[in-house]
Write the structure tokens for this entry.
Amino acid sequence: MAKKVIIGLSGGVDSSVAAYLLKEQGYDVEALFMINWKDSSVTLRGDCSWEEDILIAKLVAKKLDIPLHVVDSSEDYMKKVADYMFAEYEKGKTPNPDVLCNREIKFDVFMDKAREIGADYFATGHYCRKETTEVNGKNVYRLLAGSDPNKDQSYFLCQLSQDQLKDALFPIGHMLKPEVRELAAKLDLASADKRDSQGICFVGKVDLPTFLQQK
């Protein structure tokens, strides 16, 4: 029986190709889309990016013939990421919300949901790699840089625990970004031409002073 993997499908090209590669490797693949931010008043485009993202994610899931689960974790995001960010700015510090977002949301809330669905592994479209070594008879999981020096995202996952890394898969970590784009275009995925996301994790590109003034 094939091992089940839950892939975090964001609507971007990276997670889309990661989902395809997992299917090709023989896993039983299901996808999970997380809604983490709903307030469009602070984004520069003035729209809800998740609404566009979920549409693309649905098209990709349909194309790859994999089930798509949707979970609203906006309350968790506000408590664990946004409130922390506001508090740090208030102290005169400049936080990195993406690092916290990965530890507390993508690899915590997401991981719990994946296990609830019955996953053996969970995967993301990050450009990084994982290595397993043995120390004193126990497995130790090392996070390595992605093969693409221009897209390495291991820094954003630097605070992951051993438990979080243990069941994590990074299907595109060995690929270069142009290769990912090329494969997505070849597969005719809806996300093939989608631009890389910019700005705060899950929030999007914001006018930071306006964003902070909300608090």
User: Anything to note?
Assistant: The mean pLDDT is 86. Residues 97-117 form the longest helix (21 residues). The chain has seven helices and seven strands. Helices lie at 13-24, 49-64, 74-90, 97-117, 162-166, 177-186, 208-213.
